[in-house]
Design goal:
CATH class of the largest domain: Mainly Alpha
Pfam families: HTH_Tnp_Tc3_2
Helix content: 55-70%
CATH topology of the largest domain: Arc Repressor Mutant, subunit A
Number of domains: 2
Distance between the termini: 90 Å
Protein name: Transposase Tc1-like domain-containing protein
Radius of gyration: 25 Å
Strand content: under 5%
Organism: Xenoophorus captivus
């Protein structure tokens, strides 16, 4: 019994020395979620209703309604929701002469 415990301890210690950190304490386990599902839906609705706003403007609008978050957090959440940046193209005014 003691041999099994000692063997498993040595194995864990060699894993720790090889990777310089315990495999159980990864970054996901350390970070806490700032926004819950309701906040994420609120952000998505805010973006859909204001498509031309910048992330800083959206962040200011969100801070007025709900929690206070940074622009970096807003960008990270938008990327996590699958909303990538895109700029609407400016469409030229086409007159009757140019349509032909």
């Amino acid at each position: 019994m003691w041999k099994d415990i000692l063997w498993s301890w040595k194995r864990c210690q060699s894993v720790f020395e090889a990777s310089n950190h315990w495999h159980a304490s990864s970054r996901e386990n350390i970070l806490k979620k700032i926004l819950n599902d309701c906040d994420q839906r609120s952000i998505k609705h805010l973006v859909k209703s204001n498509r031309r706003k910048t992330t800083v403007e959206l962040q200011a609008m969100f801070n007025r309604k709900s929690k206070s978050i940074s622009p970096h957090t807003m960008r990270r959440e938008l990327k996590g929701l699958g909303l990538n940046s895109c700029v609407a193209l400016r469409k030229p005014l086409i007159s009757e002469d140019n349509r032909k």
